[in-house]
Amino acid sequence: MGRPFLARLGANENVFGPSPKAVEAIRSAAADLWMYGDPESHDLRGALAAGRGIGVENIVVGEGIDGLLGYLARMLVEVGDTVVTSDGAYPTFNYHVAGFGGVLHKVAYKGDNEDPDALFAKAAEVGAKIVYLANPDNPMGSWHKGADIVKAMDKLPAGCLLVLDEAYVEFAPEGTAVELDIEDPRLIRMRTFSKAYGLAGARVGYALGAADLITSFNKIRNHFGMNRSAQIGALAALNDPDWLAQTCANVAAGRTEIARIAAQNGLVALSSATNFVAVDCGADGAFAKAVLDGLVTRGVFVRMPFVAPQNRCIRVSAGRPEDLKRFAAALPEALTEARSQPA
Amino acid sequence: MGRPFLARLGANENVFGPSPKAVEAIRSAAADLWMYGDPESHDLRGALAAGRGIGVENIVVGEGIDGLLGYLARMLVEVGDTVVTSDGAYPTFNYHVAGFGGVLHKVAYKGDNEDPDALFAKAAEVGAKIVYLANPDNPMGSWHKGADIVKAMDKLPAGCLLVLDEAYVEFAPEGTAVELDIEDPRLIRMRTFSKAYGLAGARVGYALGAADLITSFNKIRNHFGMNRSAQIGALAALNDPDWLAQTCANVAAGRTEIARIAAQNGLVALSSATNFVAVDCGADGAFAKAVLDGLVTRGVFVRMPFVAPQNRCIRVSAGRPEDLKRFAAALPEALTEARSQPA
C-alpha cells in the first residue's frame, strides 16, 4: 500500500527484538565485514554444543531453517521418494521435496493439532523416507509434549527420518522439546535464532542430529554462506539468557492480551506455545479473510492459515502493548465490516 | 596455530574494507534485525537495475556468488549433462555440477590465462550445456577484454549457457566487463559485493541475465535467505562510488608494491586485474608450497593455485601498506628457507 504497517503482526517475527548485547556485537563487527565469516561457525557451534552436552559434529549452522530444509531435501530426496507432512502446516519443506521430485503425502490435522500418530502411521503405510513435523505448530500455535512425540516415533518405519521443526520451542512449556539420544538416526531437529532470539533478519538456523547425517551437510552446503556478523550476533544472543527469559515473558503477556481482545469481540483465541495466536473468527475461511483484509486496511498486518478448517482463524503475533492496542482498535471495525458483507 | 595472522592476504578479501556509509547503514539497521529482510531485495535490485538501464527482472540477488552458482547448478544440471571449465580455475561451481551428476570437462590454461576460444570449442565438441569462465581469473589475476569474450562466444554450441564470473571486474581495466544485450540467452553474469565493495562477510552476490533465466531462480532459491542488514549495507556501498574508486586506487597501489617486493627478491609478479597478485616463485609447486609455508609460519596468510604449472606461484592479496610491509619482511626469509630444503 506504499506505507509501512502500523503494527507488523503477520510474519511471526519477534517484535521484542534481539538482545541489546547481540545488537552491540553486530554493530561492533560491522567494520570487519570485509572478512568472510567462519565457514565452520566454530564458535557458535561450540557454544550450542556445550549448552547441550553434545559434540560440534552434531550441529550444522545454516541460512535459517529454510536454508537447512533445502539442503536436507537436496541430500535425501530422490525422484519418487515419499515424504509425509501435515496438510496446512509450514510449507517450505514441501516446495523443496517437490522440486527434487519427491512425492508428498499429506495428513489432516486432528482438531487444530498436527497428529504425530497419524503422520507416522501414514509414513509406515507409504514407506516414507522422511516425515516433517513442526512442534510447536505453525500456523496454529498448538503443541505436543516431546515425550509423546518420542513415544509415537515407535510407529516410524525402518530407515525413516523425522524432521522435527522446533523453531518456536523456546516459547513453549517445559517438556515440549524432544529429548532423545543425539545419535538416534531417526531424528533431525531444526532450531533458529529468528524467533525467540529476535534475529529473523540475520538468517541463522541450526540442525541437531546424528554426526553422520549432520556431517553430510558439508558435502553440499554453501560453506561461506553465513553472514559474519550474524554468527557473532547469534553467539551474543545465546549468551544472554536473561533477555531470552524476558522475551518469553513478554510474549506470554502478549498471548494473554490477544486472548482478552478476542474474547472482548466474542471470538476464541486458541492456546498457543509460540509467539503468535490463532484467533478463531467463528465462521469460514472467506469470513476470516474478510476480517484479515479489514485489519490490513487499517494498518495491522496479520496472516491466516491456508487450509480448511484452520482457515477460519487469523494468526496474530504476540506484539508489544502498542501493537496490540492497534489490533484491539481495528478488530471490532474489521469484524463489523466482514459481517456486513454479502455471504 | 591458535593466533590471528599478522597479515591476512590469502582469502581474496578486500582489506580496505567497506564504505563507511555501508558500515554506518549496517550499524543503524542492527536493532531492526528482528524483521526479515525483503525476500525480493527490491531496493537493491532497483538500484542495480537503474545503474545499468536494465529491468529488475534481469537481476537476482543471492547469498554470494557461491550461493547463486549452487542455485544455477540445481536449476540446470541433470545427471549426465556436460559442463566445461578451466583446469585450476575457481572450483565451487564444479562441486555443484558434480553433486547434481553433471560431467565436467576441463580445458588447460593458455599460459596463465583462461582460454575462451578453447573453452567454447570444447563446449561445441562435447555438446556442453554450460561453460564456466571467470574474467578476471582467480587464482591467476589474468583477464581478457570483454569484447574478445563476446567474439569468442560465436563458437558456443546452440543452447549452451556461458556462466561468466565477474567477481573481480570492478578492479579491472575499462572494457573488461562483457557488454551484451541483457536478454541474450547465451550469457549469465555473476557479480558480488564481496570484493571491490569490501563486504565479503555480508554475503551479497547477484546475477545478471535474461529475464526468463533470472526469474527461474525464484522457483528454488531460499526466498528469505538474505540477511536484512546485508541488503541495506550493499545498497549503501553501491551509492558510494567515491569509496569504490578510492579502493580500486588503493588496490592498484598494492599490486604495484607486491610487484616491487617480488622483483626485489628476484621473483616475477604476474599482471593482475584483481585485488591479488600471483607471484611466480620460479620453480615448481613443491617449492612454491615451501615458500607459502614459510610465510604462514611468519604470520602472513597467503594461498596458491592448485594445478601445475600455475602452482609455481603464490597468490597474495593487495593489502594495506602495513600488510605488505610484513609480507616484504617475511618473503626473503621464506625464500631462503625454501631454497635450503632438500629437493
From TrEMBL, chains A, B:
A GO MF label: histidinol-phosphate transaminase activity
Q: Which EC number(s) does the record attach to this protein? A: 2.6.1.9
Q: Which Pfam families match?
A: Aminotran_1_2
In this protein, which residues make up the domain named Aminotransferase class I/classII large? Answer: 8-331
The broad enzyme category this protein falls into is: transferase
Cite the entry's keywords alphabetically. Aminotransferase, Pyridoxal phosphate, Transferase
Query: Which cofactors are required for activity?
Result: pyridoxal 5'-phosphate
* Keyword Transferase belongs to the record: yes
Q: Does Transferase appear among the keywords? A: yes
Coiled coil start-end: none
The family database entries (PANTHER family) matched by this protein are listed as:
HISTIDINOL-PHOSPHATE AMINOTRANSFERASE, HISTIDINOL-PHOSPHATE AMINOTRANSFERASE-RELATED
Task: Provide the family line.
Answer: Belongs to the class-II pyridoxal-phosphate-dependent aminotransferase family.
Q: What is this protein called?
A: Histidinol-phosphate aminotransferase 2
What is the species listed in this Swiss-Prot or TrEMBL entry? Thalassovita gelatinovora (Thalassobius gelatinovorus)
Recorded name of the encoding gene: hisC2_1
